[in-house]
Amino acid sequence: MTNSKIITPDRNLDRRKFIEKTSLGLGAITLGLSPSCLGDERKKHVNQNKKLGIALVGLGYYGRILGEALQETRNCYLAGIVTGTPAKEKEWQEKYNVKPGNTYNYQNFDDIAKNDEIDIIYVVLPNSMHKEFTIRAAQAGKHVICEKPMALNAQECREMIAACEKAGVKLSIGYRMHFEPTTQEIIRIGKEQVYGTIKFVGASAGYTHNNVDHWKCKKNMGGGVMMDMGVYPLQAARYATGEEPVSVTAQTFVNRPEMFNEVDETTTFQLEFPSGAVANLHTSFYTSINYLYVAASEGWYSLNPFSSYRGIKGDSKNGPLNFPVINQQAAQMDEVAECVRQNKPMRVPGEEGLRDMIVVDAIYQSLASGKKIQLS
Ligand code: NAD
Prior knowledge:
This protein is of the alpha/beta class. It contains twelve helices and 14 strands. Strand 9 (266-272) and strand 10 (278-284) form a beta hairpin.
């Protein structure tokens, strides 16, 4: 079952309605699923009580965090690994009891199509590899979670969404904050206008990146701070306002040109929203920083930090926002698994990654031209 701590009353209601309507044979249509998805879900019936098997593709820094989180999940478990480093195969097999038969490399990855123990493939590779492995996973008939940023640009995101639709599999993006209770409260406050209309959002996410040889410093690998940390303040401005920006203006700054000669080290960007709200956002590989601040017509609220793995701390004009601390990655994967089992739409579908990449494309256009870019 889904982690009860992260289910809102609304979502329980949706689920109850879904079950009622499914029994009438109308559930998928009511949820707006595409015909290809409908047909495929019938074809690949998932046992609703089964713990789903997840295979992690890429066992680097974040792959390890997900591997640990999968020890805390209830709806899914670490069933397989995909790695290009033979030494990691044995290490992971022993540490997490992964079967040798569920161990793949990047070359024989497509054989995973024949493996019934793998239901979901989680792509945790450098950004430039997200599109290829998401599409290969979909073609293998597996549901996909792809890490953020979804791809190198919006066009790649569209191709990934199309491939998943064609294969009739679900796609979700690894935006873990959507599963975090205090962040969900920020979204609710904005939606219900608890403090009136939102006028300003300020947010910043950064850490000091010192590894010059890392792919995050390489343009062709999808490096750069906007791609890496910048999507957090961008996401925050979008989920806090519940709106899509109509324009973007961006600036970039370099403190260590010897290290950041291909990609951005610090980027600031401003978004204008249809309601008149404005966001001033910052991301940096030079500075350790993490906050979100929302000013509305009747008050303010904030998170500091707003996108850390733990310790999200909320405050507001009326006092602290106190919500339970959870394992975000475990909650995210549990909910994705539950959506697969129940054939429900994803909380964070591919389209959410696409919406961010449309803005990121515009940010890079603004950096190149020095101009404000209109989005609609
Ligand atoms: P990492 O460099 O630590 O790991 C990347 C993995 O990909 C490594 O295991 C590496 O061996 C493998 N790999 C395969 N081909 C490679 C190649 N050509 N060059 C480099 N590595 C290659 O990176 P990471 O920090 O784990 O990031 C992986 C993905 O996860 C990125 O998309 C990143 O944005 C995302 N991420 C998400 C979060 C989050 O909180 N959601 C946090 C960190 C990273």
